[in-house]
Amino acid sequence: MSAADDTAARPPAPVLGEHPGRVLVVGAGLAGARTVLELRRQGFDGWIGLVGAEPVPPYDRPPLSKHLLDRPAPAWLSDELDADALAAADRVWLGTHATGVRVDRDGVRVRVDGPDAAAGAELTADALVVATGSAPVNPWPAARVLHTAADAEALRTALAAARRLVIVGAGWIGAEVATVAAAAGVEVIVLEALAGPLPVLGAVGELTRAWWRDAGVDLRTGVRVASVDATGVTLTDGERVDADLVLAAVGARPATGWLDGAVTRDPDGSIRVDEHLAPIAAGTVPAEEPTGHRAATRSRVRVVGDAARRRSARHGWVAGGHWDAALRGPAVAVAGLLGSPAPEDPAPYVFSTQFGHELALYGDPGRGDDLVLRGDPATDDGWAALWFEPGNDRLTAVFTVDRPRDVAAARRLFTGESLPELDRTAAADPAVPLRSALRG
Question: Going by fewer Cβ within 10 Å, which terminus of the chain is more open, N or C?
Fold first, then answer.
């Protein structure tokens, strides 16, 4: 049966505001799999379709870099979540790409291309959940990336024969791959254009520089790459850095190009959504029905995971790329589709394992926020960094190194409707539990 045939006999679309009878989830990563499972968990008994670009079942991405060499098999989400999204869906298309979409009062129509769907075939449904995640940025075709299970397998094979690895980018992925490659005896050089490692942390990233040195990694900051070829990297100042293997780890962008004309996208490809993960603005609108098109888009579409730039009452605009958003956001999206209250406002959350340390970041530090250190980074006792809004005691983010109790406390602190207020002096004392520093 073709993709078009499979959806031809669908029931009439509901009037806007009624519950959908058919939901199509595009994207079969953590966010997509969780959406399918949440639909069933919240009592949806209608038709669910799941479209995934990769030809394999859903798996978890963080282990691809954290356990690149010691866990070659993907971390299948059916095991990680103890539930199988493929079994919960009525129809699944793997190895299939969405190439376009139209949203109107009659429903959604998604164009796809894959082994079970001819190019340009349309899947139709009453509602659409966008869970297509992100795609790695790679300005240099000769460099490798690490984003999929296939990327990880290719990188493992290449590392087995490599003596020197050059990584462009000292962010989370660059640090994790540098950790495992150096531990395996590979010579590792990391090139970072900004002033220090983990640049998302600002000055706090500089406090981790000694980890790289102690692991034998040659970290070079403030350098820019001009070109990459099969034998290495040329910097903008003309310096040559030879390598057997080059990995580009310079970030990712939301994979939302297929939505052009259906929703408005920010310059980076992200889609602004409200607290229920519904798009806030429509894109190309038919001149004769601008209001109806916007209403249809908001009623019928939800965006989860990396593709969403979410409006949070607590944190303001929250960009995608947070693992917790992919895990917990689907419950919010499904509740909105089914007419239930949004169950929570997930806090931004990133976790990492690098150079023998366990790291976690909760919240969203601003560039102008005040920084308070909790503990001494020069010791082995673990430490944390706290960010506060300038001039007041509202906590915006917590970064922890080897302090699991602070991780648990940060998770609880960022559950209210507003940012928590902490006594800065008490919070800076590592002997004082973080929650004991909470004002009021």
Answer: C
Give strand pairing partners of 69.
Answer: none
Annotate 425-435 with b (16+ C-beta within 10 A) or e (fewer): eebbebeeebe
Burial state string for 54-81 with b = 16 or more CB within 10 A and e = fewer than 16: beebbbbbbbbbbbbbeeeebbbbeeeb
pLDDT tens string 55-113: 999 999 999 999 999 999 999 999 999 999 999 999 999 999 999 999 988 899 999 99
d(CA 42, CA 25): 16
**364-380: pLDDT as tens digits:** 999 999 999 999 999 98
135 contacts 251 by C-beta, under 8 angstroms: no
Mean pLDDT (the chain, rounded) = 91
pLDDT band at 131; cut points 50, 70, 90: very high
CA 422 to chain CA centroid, nearest Å: 29
* Bridge pairing between strands 383-388 and 395-401: antiparallel
Judge whether 277 and 304 are in contact, CB under 8 Å: yes
Q: Which of 414, 405, 354, 352 is nearest to 383 (CA)?
A: 405
Residues 196 and 430: their CA atoms lie apart, in Å, by 25
The full DSSP string for 131-196 is ---EEE--S-TTSB---SHHHHHHHHHHHHT-SEEEEE--SHHHHHHHHHHHHTT-EEEEEESSSS
Helix spans in 190-343 (H):
203-206, 209-214, 290-300, 323-337
Q: Which residue has the tokens 């983010």?
A: 397
The distance from CA 375 to its chain's CA centroid, rounded to whole angstroms, is: 29
Nearest one of 92, 98, 18 to 49, comparing CA atoms: 92
Mean pLDDT in residue range 112-121: 83
Nearest-CA neighbor of 162 among 241, 244, 231? 244
DSSP 279: B
Would residue 221 be called left, alpha or beta, if left means φ above 0 and alpha means ψ between -120 and 50 degrees?
A: beta
- What the block records as the tokens of 388 is 């506060």
Q: Is 5 strand, coil or helix?
A: helix
Cα–Cα dist 202/204, whole Å:
5
Apex CA 248: angle with CA 253 and CA 179, to 5°? 110
CA–CA gap between residue 97 and residue 55 (Å, rounded):
10
Q: Phi and psi dihedrals of 30, rounded to 5?
A: -60, -45
